[in-house]
Design brief:
single chain, alpha/beta, Aminopeptidase, eight-stranded mixed sheet, six-stranded mixed sheet
Length: 498
């Protein structure tokens, strides 16, 4: 996993060196402990704020170099706006802002986790720590030279001063695995395809065994016996054999139905015979972002010993043009027995998911299934990069995903399904075709998936806009944000562990 800041929790104390970070509200009020640490320098903060027109709005910062009589090299004051209005995601954001003010050359930083009116709770302080960990991430393992001004601090120790260190450390012990999970997801997505091909991706999932997750890897012969011809057809033009990985976390009683999460894992997508244009094709190393999210989620659930049974299933393939590759006009028979006419070999992710969805639904009888896939460019036309597309056959599941998205900032927007769209993928020669034409492309892709879930409550998340080439935010300066791990972890915690 990528390097990042080391987090520690300690009582409030003035550091002897490094960067000191404190918080104020939109009236420039500091907390009592903060004022005690700053002493006479607190008055200097007010003067500097007036000179810099700093108003304490949420996420804004005020820098003081060599401040007053303090020994630290820099004092940073971060505005938190109106503390009464703050939610958990606001504390995550502030942690990211704080980490962004730590120079790459710094060896240490101290954050005083105190609001102007009270100390931060253990939950708030760990959210702050999560934001710092996410902001401190950088994927640069293949750089042989590093610039002095590289943004992400490496190996810096971040000491977070809190009112109750023991309780906060216990909370971080239970929740810190979420930060690791997001960074694992980012690492997988950022890896180049010559390093992370299906067999290597499958091998990396076995690291979950250390946390108590059972991992089964199915090779090509095993999938042939199951009749997974849709999945196998996508990968048959590649020199790298396809894999199906099934991860199982058992944190509840044996007879409790599992929650199932399915990920599209196209480790590289050329488009196959229907080859993509050369421009930006390098981004297709991230076409396995759905699978990466599922791996990260399984890590998060196991790390905090979530009281649920969960299945994570990922179909890993590489879509390449070759003499053995699938052709437009081919017809494949899925594991479910339904047939699909291939119109465009670049509409491959839905073929992978069709077999995996049927496999999970029939074998594990889950409480619900949620699949994640960088499935269509059409969803980006509709929603841009701020929301993922949500399609579902279950209103309650969809509503819960929307609420979890608002809580974490990984937002989803529900899109329609309906018989008019479903008819668009009917084929003259097979049960269905793998594209429905130009219009409603994200919807017709979801309609194909819906034919393989049966009566199982199901949601499909089209994450093409959010998971790779991700928007740059206070907590993400990476090409991939690791989108979806926090969303699904929140969903599980809020609704399925009670």
């Amino acid at each position: 996993m990528a390097d990042g800041p080391t987090i520690a929790f300690s009582p409030y104390a003035m550091p002897a060196a490094g960067v000191l970070i404190v918080f104020c509200d939109d009236a420039l009020k500091l907390g009592a402990a903060t004022r005690g640490l700053l002493g006479a320098t607190a008055a200097l903060v007010a003067r500097a704020a007036a000179a810099d027109r700093f108003k304490g709005k949420s996420g804004t910062t005020l820098d003081l170099v060599a401040p007053g009589n303090l020994k630290v090299a820099r004092l940073v004051v971060i505005g938190c706006g109106k503390p009464a209005d703050m939610t958990r995601k606001d504390f995550v954001k502030l942690g990211g802002v704080a980490m962004g003010k730590v120079p790459s050359s710094a060896a240490a930083a101290t954050i005083v986790a105190e609001l102007p009116n009270k100390a931060m709770t253990a939950e708030q302080a760990t959210a702050l720590a999560l934001g710092a960990r996410l902001r401190g991430y950088a994927f640069d393992r293949y750089k042989t030279k590093r610039k002095d001004d590289d943004e992400a601090p490496r190996g810096v120790k971040v000491d977070i001063g809190v009112a109750d260190p023991a309780r906060t450390r216990a909370a971080w012990s239970a929740r810190g695995g979420l930060a690791d999970a997001v960074l694992i997801t980012r690492d997988l997505i950022n890896e180049p395809a010559n390093v992370l091909y299906p067999a290597e991706f499958a091998r990396r999932t076995t690291a979950l065994k250390r946390l108590g997750v059972a991992v089964d890897v199915l090779d090509v012969p095993a999938m042939k016996r199951l009749g997974m011809n849709a999945l196998l057809g996508v990968g048959q033009g590649s020199a790298h054999d396809s894999r199906l990985v099934v991860m199982r976390w058992n944190g509840a009683k044996r007879d409790v139905p599992p929650l199932a999460f399915i990920g599209k894992g196209v480790c590289f997508d050329t488009g196959g015979i229907s080859i993509k244009p050369a421009a930006n094709m390098e981004d297709m190393k991230g076409d396995m972002a759905g699978a990466a999210c599922v791996v990260g989620l399984m890590h998060a659930l196991a790390a905090r010993k979530a009281k649920v049974n969960a299945i994570g299933a990922i179909g890993l393939v590489e879509n390449m043009p070759d003499g053995k590759a699938q052709r437009p006009g081919d017809i494949v028979t899925t594991m479910a027995g339904q047939t699909i006419e291939i119109i465009n070999t670049d509409a491959e992710g839905r073929l992978v998911l069709a077999d995996v969805l049927h496999y999970v639904a029939s074998k594990y009888k889950p409480k619900f299934m949620i699949d994640l896939a960088t499935l269509t460019g059409a969803i980006m036309v509709a929603l841009g990069q701020q929301y993922a597309g949500l399609f579902s056959n279950d209103d309650k599941l969809a509503e819960r995903l929307v609420k979890a998205g608002e809580a974490t900032g990984e937002r989803v927007w529900r899109m329609p399904l309906g018989p008019e769209y479903d008819k668009m993928i009917d084929s003259r020669f097979a049960d269905m075709k793998n594209t429905g034409g130009r219009w409603g492309g994200a919807i017709t892709a979801a309609q194909l998936l819906a034919r393989f879930v049966g009566k199982t409550p199901w949601a499909h998340l089209d994450i093409a806009g959010t998971a790779l080439g991700s928007p740059q935010t206070e907590v993400n300066k990476s090409w991939s944000s690791g989108w979806g791990v926090q969303l699904l972890d929140q969903l599980v915690e809020d609704y399925y562990e009670r």
